[in-house]
Write a structure and sequence with these properties.
The chain contains eight helices and nine strands. The chain is an alpha/beta fold. The chain folds into two domains: 132 residues, Ribulose 1,5 Bisphosphate Carboxylase/Oxygenase (2-Layer Sandwich); 84 residues, Ribosomal protein L1/L10, domain II (Rossmann fold, 3-Layer(aba) Sandwich). Protein L1 is also a translational repressor protein, it controls the translation of the L11 operon by binding to its mRNA.
Length: 231
């Protein structure tokens, strides 16, 4: 894979084989971010689980103390009073069957998170094949299937992120922007890692946190010592 000049220059700023402390890694992620826009700082955590087994799934959601730096658009499936509640709480889109039809017919994806009240899941279920592959399907485990739509929207707008292990046993999550600086990124990192560690399935054996890598959108990956993630 051909790499750009900035990327190659960035790799000279650190030892690619070294394991860094979380603080050192955040410093380096900022230093190696060379793009002209405010790059997202992303985390990739490799877990010692087998995602093919239902009892080794790792999934949840957590509110990052400083948010992600991204404006999140929320779509809510609700009716009646709950629809009014969602609108008052700042949802970007609120509706029911008509929105299901819009998504099905127009391939409409102008939103980042989908919330639904439990009574709407029979309707929303029709969108499983469309929303599922994009990670947008509402789920009780991530707090996006709830009657408390106001709290769900407030949490999402405040910086709630969902983490979910993929088929390669890796969790990918944004933890903020380059402009946040080291301390805010560290705060977000620690809260997220604490949640992932607490979500360890009972069926997972051996080393749980295999590797932790942080990088900016366009920058190289910096390895964090998996034994020191909460220091």
């Amino acid at each position: 894979m051909k790499r750009g000049k900035n990327y190659i220059e960035s790799t000279k700023l650190f030892d690619k084989s070294a394991l860094y402390s979380a603080q050192e890694a955040m410093d380096l992620a900022i230093k190696t971010s060379k793009a002209k826009f405010d790059e997202t700082i992303e985390l990739a955590v490799k877990l010692g689980v087998d995602p093919r087994h239902a009892d080794q799934q790792v999934r949840g959601a957590v509110v990052l103390p400083h948010g992600t730096g991204k404006k999140v658009r929320v779509l809510v499936f609700a009716k009646g009073e709950k629809a009014k509640e969602a609108e008052a709480a700042g949802a970007d889109y609120v509706g029911a069957e008509e929105l299901v039809e819009k998504i099905q017919k127009e391939n409409w994806f102008d939103y980042d998170v989908v919330v639904a009240t439990p009574d709407m899941m029979g309707v929303v279920g029709r969108l499983g094949r469309i929303l599922g592959p994009k990670g947008l399907m509402p789920n009780p485990k991530s707090g996006t299937v709830t009657f408390d739509v106001a709290k769900a929207i407030a949490d999402i707008k405040a910086g709630k992120v969902e983490y979910r292990v993929d088929k390669t046993a890796i969790i990918h999550v944004p933890i903020g922007k380059k402009s946040f600086g080291t301390e805010k990124l560290l705060d977000n990192f620690r809260v997220l890692m604490d949640a992932i560690i607490k979500a360890k399935p009972a069926a997972a054996k051996g080393q749980y946190i295999k590797s932790v890598v942080v990088s900016s959108t366009m920058g190289p990956g910096i390895k964090i010592n998996p034994a020191r993630v909460l220091e």
